[in-house]
Write a structure and sequence with these properties.
Helix content is 58%, strand content 0%. With 212 residues, it is mostly helical. The longest helix is centred in the first third of the chain and has 39 residues. It starts with 5 loop residues before the first helix and ends with a helix. The relative contact order is 0.13.
């Protein structure tokens, strides 16, 4: 008569149960994330493509690490608390409704998983000069084709709404963004933003707009 190793049997049951729990948990998290994102989709689009009319940036293509950091910056007032940052104040209020330890990681991972939509943007400029200026002032952190660099905590710029990038550069220059004592990365950008303006900046933005 076949003898069953009871210890092995219970061990196997444990493995199966753990696997089922993991699958169920993943499904629940995915559903939770999609549900949480609905409040973001109103402004940022159902696929994270952004909305130029609402001055909302694209989220698709950004890393979970970057999304997490920005949501935490908004919720803590590191970003969006300046009196002239009306759009930032909206994000500050929304981010404070999220649980930092539960909601934010799940939502950030969901946004990271969104496919990047190819969006054409009409913007004039000198591509050759834009490439040269970009490589000299932006490429070291944001990488050669504006794809971002996790090692430097620099976000992807390619595919982003150009009006949004222009507005953020202006915010850095004017002190609306990047002046908080706890925003080390923001202060670095504020310093770099002051090194370019006018046609040079427009050429840089033109170069970024051509990247995928």
């Amino acid at each position: 008569m076949l003898k069953i190793n009871v210890t092995f049997y219970y061990h196997l049951i444990g493995i199966i149960a753990a696997g089922l729990l993991f699958v169920f948990s993943s499904v629940v998290n995915a559903n939770d994330a999609e549900q949480m994102y609905t409040q973001c989709a109103t402004c940022h689009g159902d696929k994270g493509q952004g909305n130029a009319l609402l001055k909302s940036p694209a989220l698709a293509g950004l890393s979970a690490e970057y999304i997490t950091r920005q949501l935490n910056n908004f919720s803590s007032g590191v970003r969006g608390s300046h009196e002239k940052d009306a759009l930032g104040k909206q994000m500050l209020a929304i981010s404070q409704s999220l649980d930092k330890n539960k909601d934010v990681p799940v939502l950030s991972k969901y946004i990271e998983s969104l496919p990047v939509a190819n969006q054409s943007q009409e913007i004039s400029g000198d591509l050759k000069n834009g490439s040269r200026y970009y490589q000299a002032k932006c490429g070291a952190c944001h990488s050669g084709k504006a794809e971002g660099n996790p090692a430097f905590k620099a976000p992807k710029l390619a595919g982003q709404n150009i009006d949004y990038l222009r507005r953020q550069m202006q915010n850095f220059v004017s002190g609306i963004r990047g002046t908080h004592a706890e925003d080390k990365l923001g202060r670095q950008m504020a310093m770099m933003a002051k090194t370019t303006s006018g046609k040079e900046l427009e050429d840089i933005l033109h170069f970024i707009a051509q990247q995928k």
